[in-house]
Design a protein that fits this description.
single chain; alpha+beta; Aminopeptidase; 2 domains; 7-stranded mixed beta sheet; 31% helix; 30% strand; globular
């Protein structure tokens, strides 16, 4: 597969390419602890046994991004693809390479006769939410508290390693509509005009953008859950606020999931300090 910008997406083929994936992991996540990255021998073994390790190569043939996953089993016993890692070098971001890596992954998994891919990501990382939920159409119903324990390197340092597990149903109508470009995303103002309330929203304080918990116990059809527009910057500038966002958002997401809601969309509107990043939760069907 080749993207509009000329980037080639394909399976890895040489030991040197697997070694390059190790490097990209360290650079993309600013890893300093060698225990945090997946080594060559595991990547290679997964690829040879039903998994997938694919790379994004620029026009000079250099590896600038990758995606890695392996076969797994869902709670109901069905075989699925478990997508574990995807990253693009900071110097190559902004070209939709992550999106095309996921599209390639979908094609390869469908060839295996599978219809479900799952993976995890930090709920407060808006860039990942835009890709996973808004652009790909994955849904979220599962929250893991401190999944990987204390992580001390890179962008994971300073807060608990809470994660969403997303489910990407490859043949679902909302997924296909997004990939075909026919999906019409709702606007935040339109949802509020319909009476959809915030369960968590941001407020500007002297210390920075702070979370505000709101009532969300009524049996509403939908709720809005805001996250900070740039969680990584917030951790650097006001770590206590970032920790408060982690605590309060964990409470809201866990409560809503336990009551039968799922996340079906992610809205990112505005720019700079005025940008708002908001999940849409609806009752699961």
């Amino acid at each position: 597969m080749r993207t509009e910008s000329g980037v080639l997406i394909r399976r890895l083929a040489t030991l040197e390419e697997y070694q390059a994936v190790e490097v990209i992991q360290r650079e993309a996540w600013a890893m300093t602890d060698p225990r945090d990255y997946v080594p060559l021998h595991l990547l290679l073994t997964a690829q040879k046994n039903g998994g997938l390790v694919a790379g994004a190569f620029d026009e000079q043939g250099a590896l600038i991004g990758f995606i890695f996953g392996f076969l797994g089993m869902a709670a109901d016993g069905r075989i699925k693809h478990c997508s574990h890692m995807a990253a693009v070098l900071p110097s190559a971001q902004g070209q939709d390479i992550g999106y095309y890596l996921k599209v390639f992954q979908r094609q390869e998994v469908l060839k295996q006769g599978l219809e479900l891919i799952t993976w995890t990501y930090d709920p407060l990382q808006g860039v990942n939410a835009r890709l996973n939920v808004a652009k790909l159409g994955a849904i979220v119903q599962t929250y893991y508290h401190n999944l990987y324990g204390t992580m001390t390197s890179g962008i994971n340092a300073g807060v608990s390693s809470d994660r969403f597990e997303v489910a990407w149903w490859l043949k679902a109508t909302p997924v296909q509509a997004r990939l075909e470009g026919t999906y019409q995303q709702p606007r935040l103002a339109a949802l509020q005009a319909k009476g959809v309330l915030f369960a968590l929203q941001g407020v500007r304080t002297a210390e920075g953008y702070a979370p505000q918990l709101l009532p969300h116990t009524q049996a509403a059809d939908a709720y809005l859950i805001e996250i900070p527009p740039d969680f990584n910057a917030l951790k650097r500038q006001a770590l206590p606020l970032a920790q408060a966002w982690r605590r309060d958002s964990a409470q809201v997401f866990s409560n809503l999931f336990a009551r039968g809601y799922l996340l079906c969309d992610f809205l990112s509107e505005g720019a700079g300090d005025l940008r708002r990043s908001v999940y849409l939760a609806v009752r699961a069907e």
